[in-house]
Amino acid sequence: MGARARQARSVARLAAVQALYQMEVAGAGAELVLREFTDHRFGAEMDGKTMAEADEAFFQEIVRGVVEDQVRIDRAIARRLNASWKLERLDATLRALLRSGTYELFHRGDVPSEVAINEYVELAKAFFDPSDAGFVNAALDAIARDARG
Predict the structure, then answer these.
(1) Going from the N-terminus, what domains does the chain have, and what CATH number goes with each?
(2) pLDDT band (50, 70, 90) for residue 10
(3) Are 30 and 72 in contact (CB under 8 A)?
(4) Residue 32, class by beta-carbon neighbours within 10 Å (0-12 exposed, 13-18 middle, 19+ buried)?
(5) 55 phi and psi, to 5 degrees?
(6) 96, 82 contact by CB (below 8 A)
């Protein structure tokens, strides 16, 4: 996969996290949010610059996949939380990051675990402090071991 395709996938992952966050916070349905991103965010201009290209099919797959497999995904994440924590206590953005990453680990065998984990850790660094990024790394690494043996 070339550099441009890798960047488009990175943009798709970020958009998936944003879409899942928006769906949870606003209570919007997946198809409405997917359409909004496709129609208004991808390829849009901001401050006179065109936004980076996203792999829209990959974005849609992640969002729809998380929705379709959310019960299993949430169980996998919850198993890796401290016993005193519940998934609902996590920040909504952190939940979206973990759900997206877990979806990839469960359903995208063509994406090496290390690549998926690193991508979501980098996203976590953009939103949170280093300890939260470390938590994302540890949780997804444990989930990867569970998922891929």
Answers:
(1) 3-148 (1.10.940.10)
(2) very high
(3) no
(4) exposed
(5) -80, 90
(6) no
